[in-house]
């Protein structure tokens, strides 16, 4: 099982030095991962979500553990 803390650390690594911040991370027993981000003042773009999703995927190994990943914005 992929740990919530692992995803939080990976996401924080990507989000540091940006205007984006992590709102919530959840990981189910089936490795369904959901990451919610926000930008102060609003305006999280699809590109922001895609970039974080790709970064997280690059740090995980599907050969070791299969997972699904959804990155979204708070309020959408």
Write the layout of secondary structure elements.
Layout: H1 4-15, E1 20-27, E2 32-39, H2 46-59, E3 68-73
Parallel strand pairs: 2-3
Antiparallel strand pairs: 1-2
Question: What features would you describe in this structure?
Answer:
The chain has a single domain (4-73), classed as 2-Layer Sandwich (GMP Synthetase, Chain A, domain 3), CATH 3.30.300. It has a 3-stranded mixed beta sheet with strand order 1-2-3, with helices on one face. Strand 1 and strand 2 (32-39) form a beta hairpin. It is built from 2 helices and 3 strands; from the N terminus they run H-E-E-H-E. The chain has helices at 4-15, 46-59; strands spanning 20-27, 32-39, 68-73. By secondary structure, it is of the alpha+beta class. The longest helix is centred in the last third of the chain and has 14 residues, at 46-59.
Task: Give a nutshell description of this structure.
The chain is α+β, with helices and mostly antiparallel strands. The chain contains 2 helices and 3 strands; from the N terminus they run H-E-E-H-E.
* CATH fold call: GMP Synthetase, Chain A, domain 3
Rounded mean pLDDT is 95
Q: Helix fraction?
A: 25-40%
CATH architecture: 2-Layer Sandwich
Instruction: List the uncertain runs.
Output: none
Taking all Cα atoms into account, the compactness measure Rg is: 12 Å
The helix/strand series, from N terminus to C terminus, equals: HEEHE
Structural class: alpha+beta
Percent of residues in beta strands? 25-35%
Main β-sheet description: 3 strands, mixed
* CATH class term: Alpha Beta
Q: Taking strands numbered 1, 2, ... along the chain, how are they ordered across the largest sheet?
A: 1-2-3
Number of separate strands: 3
Number of helical regions: 2
Count of distinct structural domains = 1
